[in-house]
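Protein: UPF0122 protein SAMN02745249_00769
Species: Atopostipes suicloacalis DSM 15692
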Amino acid sequence: MELEKTLKMNQLFSFYGELLTSKQKDYMSDYYEEDYTLAEIADNYGVSRQAIYDSLKRTEDTLLDYEKKLHLVKEFEHRSEILKNIKEYLEENYKEDEQLNKLINDVIQDSIREEN
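Structure follows.
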């Protein structure tokens, strides 16, 4: 469960992180990307552990709310699944068409860069 939540928060942070304040970004990065404890983050910023916890909880709720309203992650995952299906179809039926395979690989790479 904790790993699943971490992956979800990292994905939401990847899509919506620029909409957060610098303090929210710092706390999220330290907690979810750097794997710092609440106490370590609190110590680094000279605030209480509870302040970090509260800020992270509010930020998580904000990220979930952004996704609920904007659906960027859901749409990205949907497009990724479609691209995967197209690639599998091409590999099965058009393996020899190098140009077609290059084009689909380019689209997939663009999609991956979009997430980051």
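Remarks: The radius of gyration is 19 Å.
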